[in-house]
Design the sequence.
């Protein structure tokens, strides 16, 4: 990918190499593939090829997703759990039909208290239902945030809110980021999530930061959070 970004080889060559990793069992390798595909996806979100790269993501990640399944197997290690979360989140965001349906089913059970989601599955399920959700989904997620008694769960929800793609809902999340519901040190995570969530989110987050620059700058002064905000 570095060579492709430098213009030395074609991105097509990168995609061909990625296809060769379908039987790879290692979490670290998949994490790298996921990150690099995320970069390509962001670049292609401004072109006619965006939907095609989502199909490519589904093709590459489906076999490992089917092998891992949704539930832990006996003798699994910590990295297997991390890999499952990574793969299901990637497939869900890309709109993989079976993953989306199962995520919605498990989310409903979680919200209704029938079957609480394990910590490993919450982020991929949340991000999937939000990416393909509506105002009701967002309201449910904000309600979960309000009810959460652990800061870890609040942060988990804050990081994925930006997955939603409708412009009016994006604005609602950005307003939420500066509200008293979110700790000042976590506001950047919410705005960053919006900026990384979609093409619409990127534009909206950039405008929001400019419109609220004085408040944000006064809040963080010259600290590391202001530089992180600019970077995202």
Sequence:
């Amino acid at each position: 990918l570095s060579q492709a970004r430098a213009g030395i080889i074609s991105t097509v060559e990168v995609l061909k190499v990625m296809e060769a990793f379908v039987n790879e069992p290692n979490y670290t390798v998949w994490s790298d593939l996921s990150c690099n595909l995320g970069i390509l996806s962001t670049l292609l979100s401004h072109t006619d090829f965006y939907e095609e790269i989502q199909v490519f993501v589904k093709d590459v990640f489906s076999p490992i997703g089917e092998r891992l399944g949704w539930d832990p197997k006996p003798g699994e290690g910590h990295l297997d759990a991390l890999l499952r979360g990574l793969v299901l989140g990637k497939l869900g965001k890309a709109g993989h039909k079976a993953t989306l349906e199962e995520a919605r089913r498990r989310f409903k059970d979680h919200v209704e208290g029938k079957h609480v989601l394990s910590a490993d599955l919450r982020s991929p399920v949340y991000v999937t239902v939000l990416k393909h959700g509506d105002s009701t989904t967002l309201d449910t997620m904000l309600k979960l945030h309000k009810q959460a008694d652990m800061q870890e769960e609040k942060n988990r929800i804050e990081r994925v809110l930006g997955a939603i793609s409708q412009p009016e809902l994006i604005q609602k999340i950005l307003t939420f980021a500066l509200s008293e519901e979110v700790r000042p040190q976590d506001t950047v995570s919410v705005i960053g999530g919006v900026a990384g969530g979609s093409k619409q989110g990127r534009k909206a987050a950039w405008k929001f930061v400019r419109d609220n620059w004085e408040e944000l700058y006064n809040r963080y002064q010259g600290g590391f959070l202001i530089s992180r905000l600019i970077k995202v």
